[in-house]
Amino acid sequence: MRFLRRSADEATETTADPAPDEVVDPARTPGKGKPTPKRREAEGRRRGPVPPPPRTQREALKRMRGNKTSKEDRRAAAVERRQRMMAGEDKYLLPRDRGPVKAYIRDVVDSRRNLMGLFMPLAILVFVALIVPAPAIQQYATLLTTFMLLAMVVEGFVLGRLVTKRVRSRFPTEPIKGISIGWYSFIRASQLRKLRVPKPRVAAGDKV
Question: Which H/E stretch holds residue 80?
């Protein structure tokens, strides 16, 4: 039995050892030897190792202060962008408000005293009148609202025609669309002066 076991072991060792004269194909790509890392593991390696947890309370406070500083920096940057947008800097404005044509339209609208600026107060007045349980007040409020809305529509149409004419005279080479200019003027004029973005650069009554 010992001889049989010894012979089997020797045969196994002989089969496992590679032949010294075996020819290796150089065109064959050798295996990686390890499985391909997952996407999450690869992203973790690109981002770097996760920092160890703080060992002391002082280190934890230091990290909290660093995060707080970054939040304060982002908040300060947002406030600065808001201020520059309100000042009318073209870089920080919305795409609909950019360009010299839109700036000129805003100046023309802001230099006029428009009845459409009372649109929001009128809406609040109508809402309050509907809450009050008095039919007479509701009737007068509805009548006043109807006349005001009609006047605002007429004023908006006249304002759009006027602004379009002045813009085409000021920028003859620019492609001007009357409907777009009129609607932009109407939206600007229907807002309260203090709530307009960006803020008006001219005072009411100034010549533009």
Answer: helix 57-87
Instruction: Give the C-alpha separation, 72 to 80, whole Å.
Output: 12
Question: Tokens for 22?
Answer: 């075996």
What is the rounded CA–CA span in Å between residue 94 and residue 97? Answer: 5
Q: Count of H helices and E strands in the chain?
A: 7, 0
What are the tens digits of pLDDT across the range 140-185? 888 888 898 899 999 999 999 999 999 999 999 988 888 999 999 9
Q: Is the dihedral of CA 98, 104, 107, 108 positive or negative?
A: negative
Measured distance CA(199)–CA(208) in Å, rounded: 16
Query: Torsion-angle region of residue 99: left (phi > 0), alpha (psi -120 to 50) or beta?
Result: left
Query: Contact, 108 vs 208, CB < 8 A?
Result: yes
The pair of structure tokens assigned to 16 is 């496992």
Tell me the backbone φ, ψ of residue 202, rounded to 5 degrees.
-120, 155
Select the highest-mean-pLDDT range: 22-31, 64-73, 83-92.
83-92
How many whole angstroms separate alpha carbon 5 and alpha carbon 15? 16
Nearest to 189 by CA among 96, 100, 113, 89: 113
Consecutive H or E run containing 101: helix 100-110
